[in-house]
Amino acid sequence: MHIRTLVSFVIASAALVWAGVLWVGGAELGWALLKPYGFVVTVVGLLALAFEATLWRLPIIRSMVVKRPSLVGTWQARLESNYKQPDGSPTVKTVYVVIAQTLTTLSLRMFTDKAHSRSLAESIRPAASDALFELAVVYQNIPDIDHRFPDTGGAIHFGALLIPNVSYSPTVISGHYWTDRRTEGKLTFEERRPQLASSYREAQQLFSRPRAGWLRRLFGRT
């Protein structure tokens, strides 16, 4: 539901309940009470938008109110796979995972030197036994056109990723992935930048720059 619509519904419901309680209590009601309604909806709507997009990432809010880790940014990750290289060795390479996140939405993209992946379904849920979280993703991998050779494994395929131990403000996380082309491996997120890269080369450039300062880290953007 659109945030403004939701805010309008909540405020209207609260106003009706409030008016009903006052009426039952014998208070006088008049149309003048409705004059600030549009202004209130606008202000609360703007606050709701800010909370949805950014404010929820404040550490005290994230840990005490919303119970949701902040993963947003571009991550440099180490990919270790049993997918064989032409010389028969397993695959080990640096990749980049871009996570876009608000309070209620989440999406992931991964860029390698030969392909990119996009998430089709994502879920972050609290672990059953402690204060950690579990991230689960179903994704589609699309090789670059000049690497799309089905006879060598370079075909469009689907896979899943599970990262079982995610803290409120992670600096390193690791998980296991598997695909429908019978490959599997380990993905370790090792470092993060606040910007959202749109390609493998752009992500490389991000990590050639100095790290962001304390203000970005305050919002969970290391």
Structure, explained:
There is one protein chain. With 222 residues, the protein is an alpha+beta fold. The protein has two domains: 3-53; 73-218, Beta Barrel (Lipocalin), CATH 2.40.128. Helix content is 27%, strand content 36%. It has five helices and eight strands. It has helices at 3-24, 37-53, 59-66, 200-206, 214-218, and strands at residues 73-84, 90-101, 106-111, 115-126, 133-143, 157-166, 173-179, 184-193. Strands 1-2-3-4-5-6-7-8 form an eight-stranded antiparallel beta barrel. Helix 1 (3-24) crosses helix 2. The longest helix has 22 residues, at 3-24. The radius of gyration is 23 Å and the shape is elongated. It starts with a helix and ends with a helix.
